[in-house]
């Protein structure tokens, strides 16, 4: 029986181990757009093999491709025998030999299931803005800066996805507490006869807050509706945290 933990070998990568490559970029109505795709770095693949298989139980080798480019074989020692899976890539326009070697190894790693899940991800729009960390050019040569999109929760390691969900819930709880404090402070400024539309009905605002305070402490949506009514009634705006 193989000692290799193939599930660990094929586990999803952390977001900082994923890089994004521009597929297309253009300009429409004066606004630059760009589409990008994710890929796992060669360094992350090598580290995954070291961590799950062991440095002495995997190896790679390269051969010239039959029509150009390069082939890579990634071998793992399974049940005492070396098993090799091959794939290839064309040389790239930039650092063509190095790019071909790297691309071939990434594809060979996919044959073992490493990073294969990334093929399930659709192309995504990059976040194009002046402060972007990455540089790109449109098909017409216009330079721009961009940041990659966030990976969906299903494409993150389970622990990371859990932390992300918990962080999101924490932000919701904090915002709810801030909204309740806002209602306490600003609700006092409302005229006694002031009415507002809440949940599709006209209601006396002060009376509604007083009678529904216990429910507001439990329901974020109800609290948010009251905050919006208070903003309209008083002109005082609740300061929402940026996402």
Distance between the termini: 49 Å
Tell me the count of domains.
Answer: 2
The topology string of helices and strands comes to: HEEHEEEHEEEEHEEHH
pLDDT < 50 stretches: none
Q: Can you list the strand order of the major beta sheet?
A: 1-2-6
Approximately how much helix is present in the residues? 25-40%
C-alpha Rg (nearest Å): 27 Å
Q: Kindly report the CATH topology of the largest domain.
A: Enolase-like, domain 1
The name of the CATH architecture of the largest domain is 2-Layer Sandwich
**What is the CATH level 1 assignment of the largest domain?**
Alpha Beta
Number of helical regions: 6
Taken as a percent bin, the fraction of beta residues is: 25-35%
The major sheet is characterized as: 3 strands, antiparallel
Anisotropy-based shape: elongated
In round numbers, the mean pLDDT is 87
Query: By helix and strand content, what is the structural category?
Result: alpha+beta
Number of strands: 11
